[in-house]
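Hi, here's the filled form for the chain we discussed.

Project: internal
Contact: R.S.
Residues: 443
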Amino acid sequence: MSQSITSGSGAQGEGGGIGEEGEDQEDPSSSSSSPILDQSKDEELANFRAEWRKELKSSPVSQASSLSPSISTREESETDEEKARQLFLKGVENEQLGKLYEAIQFYRRAVQLVPDIEFRLYESTNQRPAVETTEHAVDETEEDNLELEDEEEVEEFDPSQSDLTSHLQKVVSRSYCICQPKVPQKMTHISALPVEIILYILRWVVSSELDLRSLEMCSSVCRGFYVCSRDSEIWRLVCVRVWGVNCGGLSEYKSWREMFILRPRLHFNGCYISKTTYVRSGENSFQDQFYRPWHFVQYFRYLRFFPEGLVLMLTSTEEPTSCLGQLKTRQMRHPAMMVGHYRLCENRVTLVMQKQEAFMSQKYARSRKNNNTQEQTFHLEFEIVTYRSKTHGQLRWRCYSVFTKNRNGHGTSTAFEVVGSRFPPLWFSRVKSYTAEADYPLM
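And the returned structure, exactly as it came back:
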């Protein structure tokens, strides 16, 4: 800004104007000017100085000089954080590749630059903007709708072209993950686990007791769990446990799971129960020959099968509510319980059982050594039958015999006629407590 300052005598000379220190220097010839002119000249100088200072303060050069330290500090911090981020991500890549030593080196350099780089990365990947404009929100909803439409197009299933398992395998392979969390969460979701760990967890679900019902319940969680629960290796191990190593191939069945469902088999997550009732005549009274009593007999027979070939049988007059708990473990808890082994062949199961006393005292062992007792072996054969909606849920009697070995070493065999009223079929009943715990995974 330039202004000309005039006095009453005309323009200033060489000595007039503003000096280096901002003070005005007057010419001696102007000393005779009036006081009113001097006062107006001082006011104009004061206004000029004020405007000059204001322009200096508001100039971009001064603002840049005042803000340059904070900008440089911020840029340095941003560059350090970006370097630490890149180093940490390289460490993650090396750790995934198995190069643990190189990964440690990258982690160490990243932590030296920014000590909490790991937490910053985690927060940056999970945080969402709290406030969004209306236009941006509308755009996102439109994009979400388009994505949902695309997914619906991909998820269309045609039963005539492929089965459900292969279709879901394609869908899961496109997403590169088993499942996704429904809502954002800070804790690690199960979808972060690799497929091998998920399959190992499902083997614990099946366990050594072959709890396939729990596996089917896991398959109803989501598409990824459905695909994992249909893993052919899991069902192959199940079939080997049920029918042995020589269980046959897949010539008659499409998959191992189909073999397990359609082929006659036994259930291990419950107990087979039958109720037998009949009327037995009593003895006449010696005082009254015309009076003859009749007895109504009722008892239950329980059979519990285990995958390794062990079977327990209990015959008791007690109701199932009090007897099922005694068949939960492989240890015999009832003195009248019999133990043995079974063999499964096609749709028939053969049992060989013996009586086992609850307490084996020294006196009993000595009596057996002296051949003063008889040993009885029970041979039972059943047929596995599907009745109505219960698949393989019934065992029908085929034959029943008892082999008795006397103290002389000779044995006699007694066969019983299997009559429907005296030998009713055994029905399977699921017991929840039998598969509530798992000791070993499926192997």
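Let me know if anything looks off before we file it.
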